[in-house]
Amino acid sequence: MLHLRAICPAERTDAVLAALKAEPGVTHVVLLRGAAVDPVGDVVEADVAREATDQVVASLCDLGVDRDGGVTLEQIDTALSDAADRAEEAAPGDGADAVVWEELLARTGEESRLNATFLSFLTIACLLTAVAVVTDSPVTLVGAMVVGPEFGPLAAISVGLVLRRWDLVRRAALALAAGFPVAMLITAVGTWLGSRTGLFDPDLALAGHELDFVFEVGPFSLIVALLAGAAGMLSMTSAKSAALVGVFISVTTVPAAGYAAVAAVLGQWDICLQSIAQLAVNLVGVVVAAALVLALRNRRGQVRDLGRPLGNG
C-alpha cells in the first residue's frame, strides 16, 4: 500500500473526504483541520491500495488539490490492519501489476537529470570498465555495470514517449548525450596516462580475452537489450524493484562506452567503432522495449493528463 497525504483548502476538505471514502481501496482516513501552515489548509491522510492509487490521485487533482495544496505519496513497507487487508481485496486488480503514473513520472524525472552525481557515477563506471579491460577482469566489468546510472534516463525517455512528455524526453536525452561523451573523454585521459606511466602494457590490453563480447555486436546484443528494457520497465512500474540489479548487469551500455574509450586511445579503431555500435544497439533496444511494455500497460482511460512541468528539485 501507499500512504497518501493531501493538503487542501478548508472549503474543499469535505469534497476530498468524499472522494476518498468513495474509493473501496482507501482506508485509515485521518483529518487534521487547520494543521497545514504553508500552504494554509487542512491535512487529510489515508492509506491507499496500490492498484487504486492512480484513480485516487486523479480525483484529488480534479479537485485542484495539487494546484492549491499538495499531494504526497510514500511506500508502506508493513501494514498490520484488517482494514488495510480489506481495502487491498476490494481494490480492482493486483497491486504488483498496478502502475502509479504520478509516481513513475516523478521517479523517472528525478533520475533523468544531468547533474554532478549522474556524471560522477557514469564516469566511475566507465573508468571501472577501463580497469576491467586492461586487467581482463569480468568481475570488475560487472561492478561497472552495477555502478552505471544510465538506465534512469533510458527509462525516462520511454516514459516520455508513451505519455508524450517531450520535456522529459529532452531532459533524459540531454543527460545521455552529454554524460557519455564526458565519461568517455575522462576514461580516455585515464587510459592514456596509464599507458604512458607503464601502469599496463598497451600491446596486451586489447588482446583476445574474456571481455571481447562487449564489442562483438550481433543479434543477441539486441535480444539482450530488449529483454533488459522490458524487465527494467516492469520492475519500475511494479513492486519488484530488486529486479533492476539484474537489468544493470545484463546490458553492456557502460562497458561498451568504456571499451570504446580504451580502444580509441590505443589506436584500435575497429574495436572502438564496434563498441560504439554496441552502445547504440543497447541504448535503442532498452528504450524500445521499455516503451512497448509501458504502452501495453497504458490502457485506455487509465492515464489522465500528466501535463504539469517537471520540478527542478
How would you characterize this protein structure?
Keywords: Membrane, Transmembrane, Transmembrane helix. The chain crosses the membrane at residues 114-135, 141-163, 172-193, 213-235, 242-269, 275-296. The protein has 313 residues and is an alpha+beta fold. It is 61% helix and 11% strand. Strand 2 (26-37) and strand 3 form a beta hairpin. Helix 8 (151-163) packs antiparallel against helix 9, helix 8 packs across helix 14 and helix 13 packs antiparallel against helix 14. The longest helix has 31 residues, at 166-196.
Please state the structural category: alpha+beta
What strand order characterises the main sheet?
2-3-1-4
Large-scale geometry: elongated
Q: Overall pLDDT, averaged?
A: 87
Give the C-alpha Rg. 23 Å
Protein name: Putative hydrophobic protein (TIGR00271 family)
Organism: Saccharothrix carnea
Transmembrane segments: 114-135, 141-163, 172-193, 213-235, 242-269, 275-296
Keywords: Membrane, Transmembrane, Transmembrane helix
Question: Features of this protein?
Answer:
elongated, 2 domains, membrane, 313 residues
Show the helix and strand layout.
Elements: E1 2-8, H1 13-21, E2 26-37, E3 40-48, H2 50-62, H3 65-68, E4 70-75, H4 82-90, H5 101-111, H6 116-135, H7 138-147, H8 151-163, H9 166-196, H10 202-205, H11 219-236, H12 244-250, H13 253-265, H14 269-297
Antiparallel strand pairs: 1-3, 1-4, 2-3
Helix pairs in contact: 5-8, 6-7, 6-9, 6-13, 7-12, 8-9, 8-14, 9-13, 11-12, 11-14, 13-14
